Backbone:
């Protein structure tokens, strides 16, 4: 996956002709730095990826930049997560030709890189549109590590119903209640710790409203989202 990501970055840089400055990840003093990050946030960070993003903001600051531009909400507006592919397969199931082609593309491009065992089943949502165990995957195991005994019962997952379209409904829940609010909170704390102004242009209202007009069958093509 790492090599695929690097290849995608190299291809984008080549195609767009932009200047690219790779930032190497370092593991030196990881725990002291993580403690510093927790103090900065005044709470545990949402995911370990925000340690990496914090170091990126530090590198941006050290390079003399004062503004960063993020891709926040691109996945939630135009599709991009692994479960989106399975929701897509459910939504196009009434078109046999499209469904067959989409499933074959998923088998070729997506399934080989999916680690969550639930999401390796192409028929997961076709068989059960209400299945959500993949979202709090291994929650019981993580809860067992908590010191507060009352917190060891995993929190039940819930979502709002915006539309009957499974893919759209997932994306809207991620946008308004799940992923994006957390991302914006963590992004802001990380950026401001180095006096960086972080901007998320995908959250433009007109762009969001336009995204809602895109027919669901056009959100994924040849096994590739957004």
Residues:
């Amino acid at each position: 996956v790492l090599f695929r990501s690097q290849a995608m970055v190299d291809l984008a840089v080549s195609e767009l002709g932009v200047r690219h400055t790779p930032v190497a990840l370092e593991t030196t003093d990881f725990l002291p730095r993580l403690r510093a990050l927790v103090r900065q946030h005044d709470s545990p960070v949402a995911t370990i990826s925000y340690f990496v993003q914090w170091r990126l903001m530090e590198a941006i600051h050290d390079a003399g930049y004062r503004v960063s531009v993020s891709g926040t909400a691109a996945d939630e507006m135009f599709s991009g997560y692994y479960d989106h592919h399975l929701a897509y397969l459910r939504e196009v199931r009434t078109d046999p030709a499209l469904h067959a082609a989409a499933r074959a593309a998923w088998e070729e491009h997506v399934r080989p890189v999916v680690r969550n065992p639930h999401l390796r089943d192409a028929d997961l949502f076709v068989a059960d549109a209400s299945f959500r165990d993949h979202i709090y995957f291994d929650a019981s195991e993580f809860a067992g590590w908590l010191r507060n005994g009352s917190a060891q019962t995993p929190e039940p997952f819930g979502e709002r119903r915006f539309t009957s379209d499974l893919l759209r409904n997932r994306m809207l829940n991620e946008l308004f209640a799940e992923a994006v609010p957390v991302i914006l909170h963590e992004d802001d704390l990380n950026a401001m710790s180095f006096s960086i102004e972080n901007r998320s242009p995908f959250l433009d209202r007109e762009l969001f409203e336009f995204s809602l007009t895109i027919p669901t069958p056009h959100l994924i093509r040849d096994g590739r989202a957004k």
Q: What stands out?
A: Strands lie at 67-69, 197-199, 220-221, 224-225. The longest helix spans residues 2-16. The chain has a mean pLDDT of 91.
